[in-house]
Amino acid sequence: MSFVRERIAALEGYLSGEQPVDPDVVKLNTNENPYPPSPRVMQAIATVTPDMLRRYPDPLADRFRQAAAETFGVTPEMVICGNGMDDILNLAVRAFSGPDAKLVYPTPTYTLYAVLAQIQASIVQEVPFGTDYELPFDQLAAADGRVTFLANPNSPSGTFVPARQVEELARQLSGVLVIDEAYVDFAEENCMALTRRHGNVLVFRTLSKGYSLAGIRFGFGVGHPDLIAGLMKVKDSYNIDAIAIEAATAAVRDAKYSRENCAKVRAERERLRRGLQERGFKVLPSQANFVLARIGRPSAQKVYESLKDRKILVRYFNGPGLADKLRITVGTPEQNDVLLSSLGEIVG
Length: 348
Ligand SMILES: *Cc1c(COP(=O)(O)O)cnc(C)c1O
What we know:
Blueprint: H1 6-9, E1 26-27, H2 39-46, H3 50-54, H4 62-72, E2 79-82, H5 85-97, E3 102-107, H6 112-119, E4 123-128, H7 137-143, E5 147-151, H8 163-172, E6 176-180, H9 194-197, E7 201-206, E8 219-223, H10 225-234, H11 242-253, H12 255-278, E9 282-283, E10 290-294, H13 300-309, E11 312-313, E12 325-329, H14 333-347
Parallel strand pairs: 1-11, 3-4, 3-5, 5-6, 6-7
Antiparallel strand pairs: 2-8, 7-8, 9-10, 10-12
Helix pairs in contact: 2-11, 4-11, 5-6, 5-10, 12-14
The chain binds pyridoxal-5'-phosphate.
């Protein structure tokens, strides 16, 4: 007999991308930013005193909420902070869905949604995207989940749904619409303004991608104060540590630095897309810091393995609609050159 609850024992669990120890690996598998965080972040971390570590941190991270409110044009009551966005996604499932309520999202998408829903025994309704990742608008509206998740830009496709269409979806849904904007810093548009116009919209952000802070673990959610108050009730008392609060506050106060890095990544994304196309890949238009590239021959799995032999990591998802594709993070110009020349050799 197992001590583990049946539901948990049956669960696959979230599969993270590999984090190699070897520093020589060209790591293009988990969508980290190839550039370092703002120097202001490192300065802020250096100001952390022993006393700040001795005491518990601010449970709500009000310094960050104030800074985020100013940067993103909302009020502090509209902001909740989390130990990475993953923490807040979990809060949303627990606060708004829970057992026996319907949670809806278009697929393929971020696989953590399914894991969190299964842990809470939510009823999951997955709605497939169109062939070119068009939003399955009518099906999502008809499903009308207690919670609907939409990653925008989506992962692993990198595709983007215009804000106007997302707003129309928000209008039609009677439940909560959570817009996962993990990659929005690399996109042309975002849905932040919807949080001021719709009481059922939450926009979730992370500092992991656009702000080069995946190692810090900091995410935040923005929405109507009533939604935020609901999320606050289910969070851990001290869900973000003192160092993360300092780092994250400095990062959003220096949003200009992040914007400049993201512009570099966007320019490289275009060059990478062209390079991949020249080597026989079909590449979806991306608004994120990665591209989804389809290959006929050799198989995507073979290409993944050959790259790995050459110490280049990309992401291969052997799931529905993804078995012939690779998700490739946009690296530095040098990393992208190494990738493209290796692919030239592998694909022939
Ligand atoms: C990376 C990612 C997140 C989570 O980011 P963290 O803040 O690092 O937990 C959420 N959603 C999507 C789609 C992501 O790719």
